Amino acid sequence: MEYIVITYLWLAIVLYFLLGGADFGVGIIEMFTSTKNISRTRRTMYHAIGPIWEANHMWLIIAIVILFVGFPVIYSQLSVHLHIPLVILLLGIIARGTAFVFRHYDAVRDNMQEIYNSIFVWSSFITPLFLGIIAGSVLSGHIDAKAHDFATAYVFSWLNWFSVAVGLFTVALCGFLASVYLIGEAEDAKDHHRFIHKAKTMNIAAVCCGALVFLAAQVERVPLANWIFGDAVGLSAVILATLSLVLLWTQIGSGRTTLLRILVGFQVTMILLAISYAHFPDFVIIRNGENLSLFTAQAPEKTMQALGSALLIGSVLILPALFYLYYSFQKKKVNGS
Predict the structure, then answer these.
(1) Within a domain: 328
(2) What are 189-199's pLDDT values in tens digits?
(3) Does the pLDDT value for residue 152 go beyond 60?
(4) What residue spans of the chain are helical by DSSP H?
(5) Full-model pTM
(6) Distance from the first to the final alpha carbon of the chain
(7) Would 325 be classed as within a structural domain?
(8) How many domains would you assign to the chain?
(9) Strand pairing partners for 282?
(10) Is residue 196 part of a domain?
């Protein structure tokens, strides 16, 4: 049953990045959109994510619940040593959602709209930034379970070059996901070409930020290159991600939007697989200590069995409804209603 729980944990993280990350990405795209095109971009964005943006946070909730119930030691360590970026992440999610609703449904059109716009855009940038910082901190080896001062325990556990570089890489990937997804939502040929240009720009930014991650890993002595290129699975995942990227660039102007979405989703999934597989089952890399493993830091067997059963039963009940939600709104947009 432990493998079922671990699989659900990994899938929840991947799906949150693919779906929730794309939602964050539309705010990032808006941040780098000219005043002339901002209204068209917002209108396209509302049609794309308006009906289902809240549902995407379900994957983050599932991941947190799995850690809380199935791996309490890991959950407690992350909650203690990374409580500052976690609080910023949660505040960003709340601020973004609030601004998204108010700027669209507020009955009074006044100067508050500009405040809502600024909150939405900046929280769309800050939230994935700190999501990536948390992910980088888990792997950086800077979490010190034996720290005796505040800065070492609660600040430098996440405030380091590697974690910040992973945060910037996450922001770029979210923008890349969103721009590719929005190609299929474009209202006319002009918007279609504009989102293609943004997809290419964000992809270049992601590649540059990815290079920055490797440079920061070298400076911080994080064995990232060994994890990715020293393992057959990781190396294969990188090769597949590169091939899918090449194919995406050759097809990006073809109008085959479904293929483009599959390719960008596959590419990001392979990147996450390459990073996560080599150090499995270690989930948190601890400084000068024993790493937190998904096998040794898990809850008692009966708890894992109950959690695994709940996840399986919940999938049968919830996933069909979620897929129907996506389908119904896509069909609604196709019918023009």
Answers:
(1) no
(2) 787 888 888 88
(3) yes
(4) 2-15, 21-31, 38-49, 58-70, 72-81, 83-105, 112-140, 150, 161-183, 189-220, 224-229, 232-251, 257-277, 301-335
(5) 0.90
(6) 45
(7) no
(8) 1
(9) 293
(10) yes
